[in-house]
Structures are given as C-alpha cells and as structure tokens.
Amino acid sequence: MPKWIPCGEDFDIGHVVRWKEGAWYNSPRRRKRGKGLKIGDRHVTAQVLAYDPKGFILLDVLKCEATQGRLGIEVEPFKKHEILRRQRGTIARGGAERMVPKADAPKRLPSSKFARTKP
C-alpha cells in the first residue's frame, strides 16, 4: 500500500496526486439563476503531466471513485487516462495528497544472459 503525505499546492511533474472534488449538476432552470446543485463528490487519483502557460495543470486520471449522487442523479466518475485541466488551488482545496515514491525498492541494472564478465 503506497504512503500518502499532504502536499497542498506543492507537487511537480510526474508526481501522483489524489484529492476530492465536488460534482455539480446544472439544470436548465438553475442555469438562469447562476447556481448549480452539488450532487456528490469524486475522489480522483491522477499523475501530473505538464503545466499550462496560463497556470493550469494537465493531469492523467489513474483512478476515480464517485460517491452516491443526490436526488437520484448519478455522479459520473472520470475515465481512466482521461486528461483533466485544473488549477493548483482547486486541487489543494480538495485536501491534496502526494504519493511517496518507494526509496527502498532495489534498483536493478539491465543485464543480459549473453553478457560476459571479466574473470
């Protein structure tokens, strides 16, 4: 089981980050008033791919779990490998956590059964 540490807005390209974000429903009637209805939450785990020049972050979804929706409206989870575009503050607001890489894993050198070793 991987270890997660709270990171807020402190993550880089290549890091795996997880956070919680709200799922909203905008009916045509509510759209006139300008306020959507929160129907549930999504727990998203994604890898940071790149930074946008406008301050956005591009993320590749690794896993997404949706909670039960309100009012009989189902919350759609994001699909695996779907690309998301979010601001750092949006991710930090959802209680962002970053996965700690395994430093204990042994690093193996590529080898071949045909390689000769010097005696």
Give a quick summary of the entry.
With 119 residues, the protein is mainly beta.
User: Helix count?
Assistant: 2
Structural class designation? mainly beta
For the biggest β-sheet, the strand order reads 1-6-2-3-4-5
First and last CA, distance: 42 Å
Element-level helix/strand string: EEHEEEHE
Tell me what portion of residues adopts beta-strand conformation.
35-45%
Question: Taking Cα atoms only, what radius of gyration do you get, to the nearest Å?
Answer: 20 Å
Main β-sheet, in a few words?
A: 6 strands, antiparallel
Proportion of residues in helical segments: 10-25%
- State the assembly state of the protein chains: single chain
> What would the principal axes of the Cα set say about the shape?
elongated
Average pLDDT for all residues: 81
Which ranges are low-confidence, i.e. pLDDT below 50, for 5 or more consecutive residues? none
Count of extended strands: 6
General description of the model:
Strand 3 and strand 4 (56-66) form a beta hairpin. The protein has helices at 28-33, 88-93; strands at 4-6, 16-25, 37-51, 56-66, 83-87, 97-99. By secondary structure, it is mostly beta strands. The protein has a six-stranded antiparallel beta sheet with strand order 1-6-2-3-4-5.
